What we know:
It is a single chain. Helix content is 66%, strand content 0%. The termini are far apart. The model has no long low-confidence stretch (mean pLDDT 91). The chain has nine helices and no strands. It has one domain (2-216). The protein has helices at residues 12-36, 41-44, 58-67, 85-117, 125-143, 152-160, 163-172, 176-185, 193-216.
Amino acid sequence: xxxxxxxxxxxxxxxxxxxxxxxxxxxxxxxxxxxxxxxxxxxxxxxxxxxxxxxxxxxxxxxxxxxxxxxxxxxxxxxxxxxxxxxxxxxxxxxxxxxxxxxxxxxxxxxxxxxxxxxxxxxxxxxxxxxxxxxxxxxxxxxxxxxxxxxxxxxxxxxxxxxxxxxxxxxxxxxxxxxxxxxxxxxxxxxxxxxxxxxxxxxxxxxxxxxxxxxxx
Length: 217
């Protein structure tokens, strides 16, 4: 049964708690920044909340436990209400991934704080949870910045692109999900997705580790 999941049975509760927090903060951040820039769409649909039920997508969440990747319910954003659509659009898109980076940093801060006061605690279930919490939030931060629809990175590129390029991007947007899935589940992942897990995510983890280790030790 354990081989059916992308994580061990011991890790699943830690992953579940992490995703509930990470997805909720990610989508709430989109909704909150959009609201501050004048778009009430998410607020009217009950998405301006830290209630996980409003943000978790059942299928997208389950898929993470099975395949190792998934998604939450996207927050609706209407750029028509923004006074400066491009600037506001970029900030709304950045807010989600940035929230995951903040959560990862909070997790590392907590890990180092515990390590400095009671080193043995980091070797228990608490330490295992924090490792998963930090890792998954870094993964969400990096992956959501990839320039493929419907990821946040694509929205950022779209808002920054000149109008003529943006029009062409819109034409191919419907194929973005299929392109992303091809890159993830085919042998092409060794040239696209695997390098992210081998170099970028560990590099960011190491950089954050160095930063916090300098603070505590």
